[in-house]
Amino acid sequence: MLTKLRDIPAKTVFNLPFSYTGVVQGHRYFFFSWSEIFPLPTKIFIAMKLRLFITLYAISTSVFAQKPITVLISSQPYMNVSQQTFVVQIPQTTLKNVESHWLKYMSKESKGRVQAANGTFEQPNVSHPNISPNPFTIFSQLMGTTEGVRLTAWFTQNGTDFLFKDPNSGRELAAQKYLHDFAIQEYRAAVQEELATEQNKLQLMEKQLSGLNQDEEKSVKTIQENERATERSNEAIITNKADIQNSSDKISNQKGMVDRTASDPNATKGAKKTLSQMEDEKKELQKRNEAQGKDKYSMSKENRAEERNTSTIQQKQMLKTADIETQRQKVYEVKTKLDNIK
Description:
Blueprint: H1 10-14, E1 19-24, E2 28-33, H2 40-63, E3 71-78, E4 81-91, H3 95-107, E5 115-117, E6 120-126, E7 136-144, E8 148-157, E9 161-162, H4 171-260, H5 265-339
Antiparallel strand pairs: 1-2, 3-4, 4-8, 5-6, 6-7, 7-8, 8-9
Helix pairs in contact: 2-5, 4-5
C-alpha cells in the first residue's frame, strides 16, 4: 500500500535504508534512495527538500485555486411554470452561515418579514430600483454542495407575476449583480476565515521554532558553563596534586622526626601528633581531588547528553523551518486567492 510522504513520521523518513515510493494526488510517483554513506544531516536536508517540494506541488496544483463566481440564468419550473431562474454557486461556504447572511442581505432593502416554507424563503417588499421600479418579492432556495452552497432565486412582482419577461429590459443584469455581490461577500468571508486559520498555523509554527531556538541556546549555554567549570576543576586538581605532593614530602620528613625522637617520649608524642595532622590534611586534599574528578565526570556526562539534545533540536529546527516555508507559501496563496475574488 502506498503512503503519502508527508504522512510518514520524520524519524522514519530519515532512517529509510534503501528506497521509498511516494505518491501525490494519487497519480504522481517519486522514487528516491537513501545511501548508507550519507550522514544524518544530509538525510535530513534531503528529506526537508522533498517535503517542501511535494507540499508546494500540491498547493500550486489544486488547494488554493481561486474559483470564479458566475450567476447563471436558466429556465426552471417554479409554481408549476417554467420561470427565469438565477443560480449561483458560492464556494467554500457552509449552509448555516450563508442562510443567516442571505436573510440579512435581503432584509436590508425590504420592509417585509421573510417567511420560510418547505425549504423556500420568501422575502416580500424588496426595494431595488435597478431591478424593478416597484417593490418585489424574492423567492430563494439554498442547498449545501460538496463545493459550498448553491443559491437559487426567483424575482416576482406581488408574489405571482415573475419579473424579466421583457428580454430587452436589461434588469436581469441588475438581478445578477445583486446575487453576485452577495456571493462575493460570502466567498471573501470564507477565504478570510481560511486566511486567518493559515496565519494562526504559521504563527504557531514560528512560536515552536522560537522555542526550539531557545532550547538550543539553553543547551549551548549549559555546555559552555560545564566546560568553564571543567577548566576550573582541572586547575584545582593540578593545584591539589602539587599540595598533595608537598604534603607527602612533609609527612616523609615528619616520619623521620618521629624516628629520631623515639628515645624522648615527650618529643615523640608531639612529633606523632604533628604527623597525624599532616596525614589528615593530605587525606582532605585527596578527597577534594576525588570530588573534583566526580564533578568532571558528571559535567562530561551532562555535556554529552546536551550535545545529543542539541543535535536533535537542530534536526527539528531544519524540519520546522521547512514547514514554516511551506506554510508561508500557503498563506501567500490564500492571500492571492482572496485578492482575486471579484
